[in-house]
Amino acid sequence: MSSVLVNSMLALALGVIVVRRRSVAIVLVGAQSLALSIGALQLSSGRSGGFLLAAFVLLSKAVVLPALLYALMRRTREARLVVAASGPLVRLAGAGALALFAVAVVPPLGLGNTHIEHAAVALVLIGIAIVVARRPAFFQLLGLIVAENGLSLLAVSVPGGLSYVIELGALFDLALVVTVAAAFAQRIHSELGTGDTELLRALRD
Amino acid sequence: MTSFVPILAAVVPALPLAGALLPLLARTPNGADRLGLAVAFPTAAAALWLAVIALARGGQPALHGHWYLVDGASGVLLAVTGVVGLCSAVVSPAYLRAHRHGSSSARDSRSWYYSALLLFWAALLAVPIAGNLAVVWLLVEATTAASALLVAFSGVREALEAGWKYLVLTTLGLSVALLGIVVLAVNQARAGRHGLSALDWHALQDAAHALPASATLVAFVLLLAGLATKIGWAPVHNWLPDAHSEAPAPISAMLSAALLPSVLLVAWRVKETLEPSVGAATTHAVFIGFGLASILVAVPFLWRALPWKRLLAYSSLEHMGVIALGIGFGTPLAIAGVVVHIAGHALAKSLGFYAALPLLRHDPAAASRAPGGVVNASPSTAAAMGVSLVALAGLPPSPLFLSELLILLGGIAAGYALVSAIAVIGLALGFLGLLHALIEGVVGEGTPRLRGLPRAPERSIVALTAILGTALLALAATGLLLPGSSFVETLARGVL
């Protein structure tokens, strides 16, 4: 997979942790999924038909997920933007530092391509950072998708390809989890009038 | 008997999976109850049949085919999940009758509830018999989707918070675990082993010694760290008390008694599979570390005056820690303790959650504060809570007394005297905390807050107390026969 695609996936993930508007974040996640599917299609020559199928499913994910997220956004309109707990530069620096630290300590994973290995680990950690740093349920859902894109990046880069059964299964699971999470986000919005999960802090010991 | 195994291994998860559609056809709320139960009984029967076959094989090697793996550990988990799933289905009508179903109709609410319960149960039953690590991961992730909806079933703000936290944290944890699986797949592919079968438990175990140690160690750590969030091991247990306390009581029982140990079995299989490459010292240290941390984190909460279901949730944290310790020690004595502990914890904990049904139905405020003097208002509810607490605390003749003793003796035999000593202190403090809850909340002189309970719920909780209490005593007696048995010796050599 070309370095440009891998680097653009990283940049788009960092964009999700910075931007304020949900519509912009959907575009960034959609573009990231598109970059991943283009990379998978590039790798599909000389591989099994199953891998090609998995690459096309990734491509359809890049179209279907943003559409689902856009529909969710329309159904959960925010009266005003949710105030962030920390500024965009602090969030960006935190996520960047976390990703760099992980890249520094994680030994070679066996792929033989350290750039992709580092990018995949960094994407998973940036996804986790988005969930931790962003208060709206909608952005936390996007964090899960970013982390999953990191996993898919590593999976499609496996020599000979990871079993398409696993890739399709993981995509099916992602679709299931995103659907359930979207239902939750809608319920949270109708209960609180906002998607701000900071208001869900009743359960404490 | 073993010729039935491939068929049964397919039928056991397929029955609730297909049956999940049936409650959606119900025309009345009671019809949904009946259809839910109509699926639950044959499912439990099939699961118990397969469990009996697995357990009856004693020390013989595991049965495995292209997609399934049935060994002694599968047998224990199938039995536990079959019994708890059936009991949860049976008590669900009592919960649903009391549940306020918001904007949806009672029929829709119940149909939806049973469908989600059966899907959750199907995934749970498939986890211990799936023969492939990647497939197991997909099944564990499927349990998250189905059970998160059930956790938030009541629709109140606290349940939404618990369900969302559970969904997000466990999904993130499982993403980390999937990263570990992909790392294993990468290294299998580099060694020329491609496709789904490269991630079969046996294929991984056969290849583990030849996998690069550093990459396999990374995979092991990622897998265990990810699975730990789903098992609820400290320090990644944050979702556990919230989800267990806010879910409907029958679902709390399934989460605690079946889900946590099922995922723990996956972690156990990962340990056995990768140990030739990672090294026994490392794998044992990781399990012992999670075990001790979970026990020590749980103890202060067991001393606090917590709402009943929340207290049971922290008790789950403690008991998952005990099981982790036993697996970490790895001696036959400790493994005998692990087997008894998984079964005993499931019976005692599910009874505790079922007792919450009459408790909360007639004193809803008990959802947010510790109960007091329950025996004064409802002796039968108090009896169920008492049996559950006595068993969970490990007071003889509880099977958990025997299992904890076996695990600690196993630890000393393995040379972990200091770890065992710390665990003894933690368990003793936990015991005193639960005893305090028993005295103050159940049999004490506290102000009776419960109104008199009608007979029907009392009859059902009396019946459950009698059945599960008898099963606990039978388990304690059976547990005495386990040390030195070929069944345990085989499990101690590896759950594959």
Quick structural summary:
The complex is a heterodimer of chains A (205) and B (496). Chain A has helices spanning 3-18, 22-43, 49-75, 88-105, 114-133, 137-156, 164-192. With 205 residues, chain A is an all-alpha fold.
Describe the fold and architecture.
The longest helix of chain A is centred in the C-terminal third of the chain and has 29 residues. Chain A is globular, with a radius of gyration of 17 Å. Chain A has one domain. Chain A is mostly helical. In chain A, helix 2 packs parallel to helix 6 and helix 6 runs antiparallel to helix 7. Helices cover 74% and strands 0% of the residues of chain A. With 496 residues, chain B is an all-alpha fold. Chain B folds into three domains: 131 residues; 127 residues, no CATH class; 218 residues, no CATH class. In chain B, 76% of the residues lie in helices and 1% in strands. Chain B is built from 19 helices and two strands. A two-stranded antiparallel sheet of chain B has the order 1-2. In chain B, helix 6 packs antiparallel against helix 8 and helix 16 packs parallel to helix 18. Chain B starts with a helix and ends with a helix. The mean pLDDT of chain B is 92. At the A-B interface, helix 5, helix 6 and helix 7 of A face helix 5, helix 6, helix 8 and helix 9 of B.
Which helices and strands appear, and what pairs or packs with what?
The complex is a heterodimer of chains A (205) and B (496).
Chain A: H1 3-18, H2 22-43, H3 49-75, H4 88-105, H5 114-133, H6 137-156, H7 164-192
Chain B: H1 5-19, H2 29-56, E1 63-64, E2 69-70, H3 72-98, H4 106-126, H5 133-151, H6 157-190, H7 201-208, H8 213-231, H9 239-246, H10 249-278, H11 280-302, H12 308-329, H13 332-362, H14 374-377, H15 379-393, H16 399-413, H17 417-442, H18 455-479, H19 486-493
Task: Give the key terms.
heterodimer; A: 205 residues; mainly alpha; 7 helices; B: 496 residues; 3 domains; 19 helices; 76% helix; globular
